[in-house]
UniProtKB/TrEMBL annotation:
Keywords: Signal. Residues 1-21 form the signal peptide. InterPro entries: AB_hydrolase_1, AB_hydrolase_fold. It comes from Arthrobotrys flagrans. SUPFAM superfamilies: alpha/beta-Hydrolases (SSF53474). Residues 71-331 form the AB hydrolase-1 domain. This is AB hydrolase-1 domain-containing protein.
Length: 345
């Protein structure tokens, strides 16, 4: 029988806010074998693909933009999905960029991968690139995808990387990433950090999945809508404006719905990985074209963490956007970031 503290945590914590959701412009996929299938609210954007690895795992990913465009791997936030990359679609054709956006293990219809690591995801990126015949590419990660992007900078041979970027990315624990974080984010971050055993209990996963099973699609959407509004209470003014947009909230919810299509185990695993000790050191990143983008009013992944990561990563460039926050940075600065990151596009 689960302890009282485990039961209390299962009601207190909503998993979409362990690492803040990301803003997107997209619709969910309706994959028929999903455990909790989503109900599309917009025409589906992007082409959904799947790749069967030699290990037997399946990776799903979406592609956006011109097929012959400059390849850019986009690593989604947590919990989020490949749908998130559609936020950049309006800016792709004019820059001749092709985005490839994988779903991490346990997200969407990508297979779960027990005991996975941050650097292990770099091998998944390489596997997709190889299957598409792509030799050199860029990688950029948003929010909870930031650590995975840095893991690529650490683990992928430099001759295959044209650039690595992080947008509003989570920083490792040793750099005091909660400095400047909103109170709810700070609380959740520390709960996951110090009670990670709780998040690995079968009881917690089962109780949350059972809750999802009892709800209709619209009830699940309403749950995530409320979560976005609760998250936005302590955020900056520009993030609050995003959260007041019915369309923007619907797009965030669409992405979160896909994240949990196979249940909550993948997103829970991701949350624990992001706040635990990373399996690589920033100081050991040898790739010298790493760019960090952050809003000065980001209270989910505060600017303090980005500044400390710049100091730790040799040659890293930091771009700060005055007044922007965690949600607003992609809305207000997406085109600007792509223009800086893929100059020849």
């Amino acid at each position: 029988m689960a302890s009282n503290i485990t039961r209390k945590l299962s009601t207190l914590l909503d998993f979409s806010s362990l690492v803040s959701a990301s803003l997107l412009r997209v619709s969910p996929s309706s994959i028929p074998n999903a455990l909790f299938p989503s109900s599309p609210s917009h025409p589906t954007e992007g082409i959904l693909e799947s790749l069967l690895l030699s290990s037997g795992r399946t990776l799903t990913y979406r592609t956006y933009g011109p097929p012959n465009g400059t390849p850019l791997f986009y690593l989604h936030g947590s919990p989020s999905s490949s749908l998130e990359a559609a936020a950049l679609v309006p800016h792709l054709s004019s820059r001749n960029i092709r985005i490839i956006a994988p779903n991490r293990p346990g997200f969407g219809q990508s297979s779960l991968y027990p005991n996975r690591t941050l650097t292990g995801h770099a091998q998944d990126v390489i596997a997709i690139a190889d299957s598409l015949g792509i030799q050199m590419f860029r990688v950029i990660g948003l929010s909870g995808g930031g650590p995975y992007s840095l893991a690529c900078a650490h683990s992928i041979p430099s001759e295959r990387l044209a650039g690595v970027g992080v947008i509003a990315g989570a920083a490792p624990w040793k750099l005091n990433p909660t400095k400047g974080m909103d109170w709810h984010g700070w609380m959740r971050f520390h709960l996951v950090r110090y009670l990670s055993w709780t998040f690995n209990t079968a009881y917690l996963r089962r109780s949350f999945d059972n809750k999802l099973k009892c709800w209709s699609v619209e009830e699940r959407r309403d749950f995530w809508r409320k979560d976005v509004h609760n998250t936005a209470i302590d955020l900056g003014e520009k993030d609050k404006l995003v959260a007041e947009s019915k369309e923007a909230v619907g797009e965030i919810v669409d992405c979160t719905m896909e994240a949990f299509e196979s249940g909550c185990e993948g997103p829970i695993q991701d949350s624990v990985l992001l706040v635990a000790g990373w399996d690589f050191q920033l100081e050991n990143i040898g790739f010298e074209d790493v760019r960090l983008y952050v809003g000065t009013e980001d209270r989910s992944t505060p600017v303090h963490g980005a500044r400390e990561m710049q100091k730790a990563i040799k040659g890293a460039k930091l771009v700060e956007y005055e007044g922007d926050g965690h949600f607003s940075i992609l809305v207000n600065r997406g085109a600007e970031i792509l223009g800086d990151f893929v100059k020849e596009g």
